[in-house]
Task: inverse folding
């Protein structure tokens, strides 16, 4: 059985420990960070043992996971220093409810072996999605100063100044629009997830003449800037680059670790990240969608 870390002191200590394992621990670190900032998604952290843990699993409370088909809610973040231990912890405990449609997120591509092995024994079908993970220079300087990529940043790096325009906060009524353009969205459950993100986290947009968003940037419960887009008719004007600059600056001022991902085929977003000096980790963003057979 895995241990549920309940005290604020333990969670702060876990955050501190995970910081030492960046970037592999990033997805879990970002989630724990926001759990320590009020835990708006009411998540819980479990470890194989304490304080010398090997494996950490973050998951929602059982009472939140009422819809067996809602993988947006039934989401787990995992980090492990020892894959054998991880396999053992996940196969011998009920920390993951394999009877549900669920997703596992991690910055550790090596977890694939563990998850594929579990898939066989738990009779589940797994689809892995790998993306390029980008971390912001602000985060790299603060948390990963010894990284070669951090050392290669322009001397005295500072974020490019954004063009001045009126940005607004997102409103839950904007969720349907975001859902329509989100690669992982397009359904009722994803829209509920987006609404929840808008309610709980800092998200910004640029409003068009009709007063509806034409470009937006949203973060999720793991601290990742997860959804961003510009309406097709407004693309090519650098709106999302500017919006990202504003969003990242606002998150950085709050001391939030900031990162994002993009598809390996999405050259446009890769170019935006490159121009903003964001540091890429080619296999750093992983998601496994699991469905019971």
Result:
């Amino acid at each position: 059985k895995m241990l549920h870390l309940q005290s604020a002191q333990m969670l702060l200590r876990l955050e501190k420990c995970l910081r030492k394992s960046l970037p592999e621990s990033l997805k879990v670190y970002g989630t724990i960070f926001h759990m320590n900032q009020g835990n708006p998604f009411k998540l819980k952290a479990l470890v194989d043992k304490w304080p010398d843990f090997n494996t950490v699993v973050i998951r929602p409370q059982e009472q939140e996971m009422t819809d067996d088909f809602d993988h947006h809610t039934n989401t787990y973040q995992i980090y492990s220093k020892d894959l054998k231990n991880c396999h053992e912890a996940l196969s011998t405990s009920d920390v993951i409810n394999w009877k549900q449609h669920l997703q596992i997120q991690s910055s550790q591509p090596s977890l694939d072996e563990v998850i594929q092995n579990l898939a066989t024994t738990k009779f589940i079908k797994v689809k892995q999605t790998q993306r390029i993970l980008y971390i912001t220079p602000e985060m790299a300087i603060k948390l990963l100063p010894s990284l070669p990529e951090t050392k290669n940043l322009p001397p005295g790096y500072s974020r490019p100044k954004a063009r001045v325009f009126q940005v607004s906060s997102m409103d839950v009524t904007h969720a349907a629009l975001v859902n329509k353009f989100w690669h992982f969205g397009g359904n009722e459950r994803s829209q509920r997830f987006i609404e929840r993100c808008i309610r709980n986290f800092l998200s910004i947009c640029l409003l068009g003449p009709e007063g509806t968003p034409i470009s937006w940037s949203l973060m999720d419960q793991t601290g990742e800037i997860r959804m961003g887009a510009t309406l097709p008719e407004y693309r090519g004007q650098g709106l999302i680059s500017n919006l990202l600059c504003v969003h990242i600056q606002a998150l950085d001022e709050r001391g939030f670790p900031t990162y994002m991902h993009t598809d390996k085929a999405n050259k446009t977003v890769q170019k935006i990240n490159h121009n903003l000096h964001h540091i890429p980790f080619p296999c750093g963003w992983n998601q496994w969608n699991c469905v019971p057979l």
